[in-house]
Specification:
Elements (H helix, E strand, L loop, with lengths): L5 H4 L3 H20 L4 H8 L3 H8 L7 H11 L5 H4 L6 H23 L3
Helix pairs in contact: 2-5, 3-4
Length: about 110
């Protein structure tokens, strides 16, 4: 039985949907390979109930389990890109705003009488 986590209770709906979609995609990948739950779980070194929870997108399943499933698919190399700084649009917007603010301050200083 998974241990309860406050973070799981606070999971945004869009993040929960993304996990559900990931689980469904992983289940489809297993099925396309004609692997049984038992065989796939064995290859992942997890129990069948854990595999079932992962395939449902359960947020209490450890990241390592999801990563192992991606590895079995040959897709683990895509994991770092999920949080790649170049794709972090929120941080990019913050960086741009900081540059604008700095430009405004420099502009005001340049306008001040000497």
């Amino acid at each position: 039985m998974p241990k309860p986590s406050g973070a799981n209770d606070q999971l945004p709906a869009s993040a929960a949907k993304a996990l559900k979609d990931l689980g469904e995609n992983l289940a489809l990948a297993r099925q396309r390979r004609k692997e049984s739950l038992r065989d796939w779980a064995s290859r992942m070194a997890v129990s069948v109930p854990t595999l079932i929870r992962m395939e449902k997108g359960d947020p209490s399943v450890g990241m390592g389990v999801y990563a192992t499933a991606l590895w079995l698919m040959g897709r683990h190399a895509a994991l770092p890109e999920v949080a790649a700084p170049a794709l972090d649009l929120n941080a990019l917007e913050q960086d741009i705003e900081a540059v604008r603010q700095r430009g405004r301050r420099l502009s005001r200083k340049a306008e001040e009488p000497a």
